[in-house]
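In this supplementary section we document a worked example of the pipeline. Step one takes a protein sequence of length 549 as its only input; no multiple sequence alignment statistics are reported here. Step two produces a three-dimensional model, which step three serialises into structure tokens for compact storage. The input and output of this example are shown verbatim.
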Amino acid sequence: MTTPPPDNRSTPWKALLFTYLVALIALGFVLIRDIQPVPMYDLHLTEGERLKCVSYAPYHLPGQSPFDPTQIIPREQIAADLAALAKITECVRIYSVDQGLEQVPELARAAGLKVLLGAWIGGDPKRNMIQLDRAIALANDYADVVRVLIVGNEVLLRRERSEDEMRELIEYAKARVHVPVTYADVWEFWLKHRSLAASVDRVTVHILPFWEDNPVPIEGALKHVGEVYAEIRHTFDKPVMIGETGWPSAGRQREGSLPSLVNQARFIREFVHQAHANGWEYNLIEAIDQPWKRKLEGTVGGYWGMLDTQLQAKFPLAGPVSERSSLTAPLIAAGVGAVLCILLAAGARASLLRLLVASVTGAVTGVVAVLHWEHAQFAYRDVLEWTVLGAIAAIGGALPLLLARWDAGRPLPSVATAWQTLRTQPSRYCETATLLGLLRGILLFACAVAALLLFADPRYRDFPVLLYLVPALTFGALGCSGQLTDAIEERVCALVIATTVVGRWLTEPGNPQAIAWLVTGLLFSLPYLRTYARTITSSESSSPTAAKL
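The serialised model returned by step three reads:
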């Protein structure tokens, strides 16, 4: 690709200005929307009235996880947790009786709480009996505290035990315990295993609109819960308890089901009102955010709590709720980014157009950096993710700084050419075009890997829009203005990105997050595919066969 003539050197700056201005407007719209207080139903509980029950797991502090069987949660922590929960609920549900959880009935009695006591049933028969015998003993010792013994949680869903095996365990418990016995599972699995109801004292169902095979938007979530509850009541002649229901406050959107603080507050308020008005027995999932669950269910799994990990309420039960409490951080970041890029561009004796581009690219990058940092606090689970994804974010954030020093008369080389240049001529590390070419290849490859993973295994993966938005804006604009030189590496990555983002979007076309990922991926990849298509067309038209035709 040849150097563009002098009168075309403003073209890439105009393309960058237009692209980043559109992005800045879109980001501004999102921020303004998120800070707006959203009115919703005000839940006013009567004097002394509390939530019926909430799921409690003590693994909310850094490093705590049920995956470590040797870890024992300190008694003092559990007591402090239950004291905080006693202010909002009259009962807690626990799922196992090890790792310190065997202390819950005693401490719950002191806190004035009742307990739904769970025995964890899994694939290990020996461990199952240890759990069950311990749970039976606790239920009998604290019969004034334990409302019900729950033998297993979603065991049939996980296919770790058969229906007959669960029936045997339930009947074993019933013959030895002095409190009612139940089994808890997703409502569809109760309908598939109806005969199991004969062995329990009550039917405990999980109704989670967000996790349905066909995700239910928040607008229809309460109706869905009511319809499912009515169907279960009609199907079984036993008392029915909703063992889990709730809504997440952060994570990946599933079709029309959006995890958000506003939606969580709306669901909890409206559900509790409906449940209390109808006299339903229920348990909300869950008491406290559980970051460890991100290992199993991605970002969304960790944020179903009424309280955050510091035991602070995430939202009030009355009054409007907003997603953001302040715009200070993104506004400051936008200003810092704009000033920094302007200073770098001014040092290169830039034109007014270039200075304007520098200000807009810096502002957008600053806002994206803050939003991505906020997302990372929720999403990144370990050192590996912080290192790899943090490095990708840093590379993307450096692009506007390099653009501020870039000479538009020098198109970006392919990654292979850039790498060869830097290997053979180390003195050219300071050349902006060469660095941009190398970073472009790294980011394209990273984006292709992310897009492929999200396409193949989407259920628990977030859409990485914030991670690749700045690279997509930058190289999309430069590609459309003819400033990129590419080779087979870039074209393969671009093809992977384009096909997988389209494929992901086709499965949930109404999902705004999927649409944002589609736009990001296409903006990043299409310039390379367009160049490749032109190359093929040019080759075909100049071939001997074409000449004869």
